[in-house]
Automatic annotation (TrEMBL):
Gene: aroE
Entries under HAMAP family matching the protein: Shikimate_DH_AroE
The entry's keywords: Amino-acid biosynthesis, Aromatic amino acid biosynthesis, NADP, Oxidoreductase
Catalytic activity: shikimate + NADP(+) = 3-dehydroshikimate + NADPH + H(+)
UniProt organism field: Steroidobacter flavus
Protein name: Shikimate dehydrogenase (NADP(+))
Amino acid sequence: MSSVISTASNRRVLAGLIGSAIQQSLTPALHMEEGTAQGLDYRYELLDLDRINGGVAALPSLLASAQERGLAGLNITHPCKQIILPMLDSLSDDAKALGAVNTVVFSEGRRIGHNTDWWGFAESFKLGLQGAALERVVQLGAGGAGAAVAYAMLKLGAQRLDIYDIDATKMRALVALLSELFPSRQVAAVTDLRVAMASADGLVHATTTGMAKNPGLPLPADMLRASQWVVEIIYFPLQTQLLKTARSIGCRTLDGGGMAIYQAVGAFRLFTGIAPDAQRMAQHFDSLARRPAAIAAAE
């Protein structure tokens, strides 16, 4: 049963986010602020696996409880984007192609998985790095978020995508998937990151290195060149060590804020059936991300 009640105004919408280390997420505020602006009674809750007995093992019961309590849907983040798949009734075409879900909609007793990550990343890239060279791109990370951004890069026109992950099995699986989806492009597993970076136009970073609780650089700084662009999907903090280092070298950079905003735009539309104001959500995100409390929490 969906919690979205079809009244003319002030209808109630319940939604939430499941994942690990999500207490500082800006997603709840983004959804609720836009819900208020749209005349909705919008509530959004956090289901933090770090604070729930059983951790990831509790995912099936959390999913069932959310559905029973009448939530319109859930956003799904690390480490659940792939392990949730067997718990769903159906997948959107994009989620099926990617094998990763970041949004679940409850509708007529069914659980439908979607992926708004790839579209959110693509929108952010188009707005923030217009004219970026896409002949050869290196991506770090082959997890659930990594699958989405790799898919987006190929949709955006990357001619060759070199993927590196310390988990070789996961890396090869993603390369095989993308090679099948995009047979006219070159997708390869990286065995020597330094060699791959030497000829790359740009770098996409899709691992957890650089997050507030996992600071540091995901690769040696001397692998970067001023002629390259560097994109980050982490948004907490907005300015990771990778972005700071890349800018100091002279690289064009793009932070993870845009992806966070536009994936939320897509999820809001799925949860409510209403097209949100993306510009308003972006302005709200910017105001939240620049608040002293948010900056201090990221340090």
